Amino acid sequence: MTPPRQSTRSSADTKQFARRLSQGAFLLLFFILFIKTDYDGRNELAYPVKIFLDADLLVFLTSLLSAHKLPASLFLALLFVPVTLLFGRAFCGWVCPLGTLLHAVSFFDRKSSPERGIKTRGSRWKFTTLLFFTGASIFGIQAAGLLDPISLLIRSLSLSVMPGINHVLRLFLDWGYRLPWRPASDLFDGAQTFLRAHFLSFFPARYEQALFFFALFFLVLALNRHRTRFFCRFVCPLGGLLGILSRSGLLRLSMNEKCTRCMQCRDVCAGGANPHTEENWSPSECVTCFNCSAQCPEGALEWNFALARGTKDRLDVGRRAALSALSTGAAAAWVMKTSPAQAKPDPLLVRPPGSRPEAGFLARCVRCGECMKVCITGGLQPTLLTAGIEGIWTPKLVSRIGYCEYNCTLCGQVCPTSAIEKIPLQQKKKTVIGLAFVDPSRCIPFAQGTPCIVCEEHCPTPKKAISVNERPGKGGTPVKVPVVVVDLSIGCGICEYKCPVVDLAGIRVTSIGETRNPENRLNLPVGPYAATGPRLFL
Q1: How would you list the strands of the sheet with 466-472, edge to edge?
Q2: Are 266 and 300 contacting, i.e. CB atoms less than 8 angstroms apart?
């Protein structure tokens, strides 16, 4: 017959193994879907690449408050409400891919790390962060994505880590392909073919602020050497939300008389939940990792389902502090709405096709970076202050970096909150995101009198949005010059991208005339000139 202590340890080890297996499986699934968030020759993604964002309860709550309407896919997040009420913060300990990475960093070479497992007053900051973002979302600013763990991980990997890996791999494969020894060259050629099909991005994307995103991500990882799962315990607003629900969780930790106060459970606790003291065990901090019960040499810790009555777990956030955080978020939202970006559209703020009007867009966009990663040409870039501080890290099209592919609707397919709506391809082709202007001071035919119709040749619209007129060139020889037809231009930016003027293009796209904003219009004269069809120069 198996001794009770050994049986308890065996059960705890099994739970711990199951947790590790779950973490590995979900992390692997996350990376598979992340890599598949890319163009593969089709205009339809074959994988549910945004399923982790769809299951994000924080995105669900803040989007519901800010936009007052949600796409059906986000209701998957509601599945984790009963899960949390049953098992506590199981999402953090068993599912969350960022949590898994932080867990691994926290417990790598754990002897060199400081004391673990003790709940501190710093844990309240994740609840105040949650309340701040909740207050902002009530008044139409969806800012939770700045610190939401799923959005943060996708954004960091998409805009900094993966472009760097792609760049190094491409350089290495190109070097190997040029080797003079034929078998080695063929080997690298085969590797390149395989990686291009399954791992490398379709286009070698380059993103603004990439080093800044990498530094933030590195900081999030490095802080775990200071405290176990530092981000989860002190910063994460999703952890705060799940922690509030976990206080009513049914899975409870109990301690029997076998405890010898060895403190091994405290030293392996991933969440700072005080497992070494039964009366102060904190379900709002526990990530259900089962490290404590698996480590206990006496089998003194047990997990059982019981009602959560009489819990002494405190959130350490007083009523006054909670109201202050909520009201500060609301006040910040109102102040951000008075920024110049809210009053007049920035000409450089060209949003992807299918984007909602700016107010609705900011009420939904969680800054996850999925749309930027999936952009075929890498033209979608994170804003800094172009859209005001309230629009930081939202997507904009920078045509000099990449254009909006005429036959692509991928950005709308990966957006989890419909900030960018999924629209049919034929509708997308008619959606205006901006307007091209010719700059005569930099356009080669205008400024140099030298023939160049690159922009007209690459214009993708069935009836060219760029026509050519003849005017006298050098020596009186007629030269063709480009002229934009306002009614046909959709602002895709391929003309600016392909312009042979290397630094500042001779034709540029601004946001004016965008379909989503009827007020952002070009005031043209009326009369006989208008009847001939408007033509634009900068």
Answers
A1: 466-472, 478-485, 535-536
A2: no
pLDDT tens track for 54-109 = 999 999 999 999 988 877 778 889 999 999 999 999 999 999 999 999 999 988 77
Cβ within 8 Å of residue 363, ≥6 positions away: 63, 66, 67, 137, 140, 141, 142
Q: Where are the alpha helices (DSSP H) in 97-222?
A: 97-106, 125-138, 149-156, 162-177, 182-198, 210-222
Map tokens 């040499």 to a residue.
297
Instruction: Summarize pLDDT for 258-285 with one digit per residue, the tens.
Output: 888 888 888 888 888 888 887 788 888 9
Q: Which neighbouring-strand residues pair with 479?
A: 471
Length of the chain: 538
Let me know: does 288 contact 15? Beta carbons within 8 Å: no
Domains of the chain and any CATH numbers: 4-153+215-305 (no CATH), 432-538 (3.30.70.20)
Burial string for 367-400 (b: 16+ CB within 10 Å, else e) reads: bbbbbbbbbbbbbbbbbeebbbebbbbbbbbbbb
Residue appearing with tokens 């049953």: 86
Q: Whose CA is closest to 283, among 307, 263, 267, 300?
A: 307
In this structure, the dihedral spanned by the alpha carbons of residues 175, 181, 187 and 192, taken in order and rounded to 10 degrees, is 30
Using CA atoms, how far apart are residues 436 and 490, in angstroms rounded to an integer? 8
Q: Determine contact, residues 284/246, Cβ cutoff 8 Å.
A: yes
Place of tokens 């080890």: 13
- Six token digits for residue 438: 């010719």
- Give the closest residue to 315 by CA, choosing from 120, 115, 61, 87: 120
Residue 352 confidence (pLDDT) above 60: yes
Give, to the nearest 10 degrees, the angle between helix 125-138 and helix 57-67.
30
**% of the chain surpassing 90 pLDDT:** 57
CA-based torsion, 83, 88, 94, 97: positive or negative: positive
* pLDDT for the residue 161: 95
Write the DSSP symbol of residue 355. Answer: B
Phi, psi for residue 509 in degrees, rounded to 5 = -110, 135
Q: What is the mean pLDDT of the chain?
A: 88
Pairing of strands 380-382, 466-472: unpaired
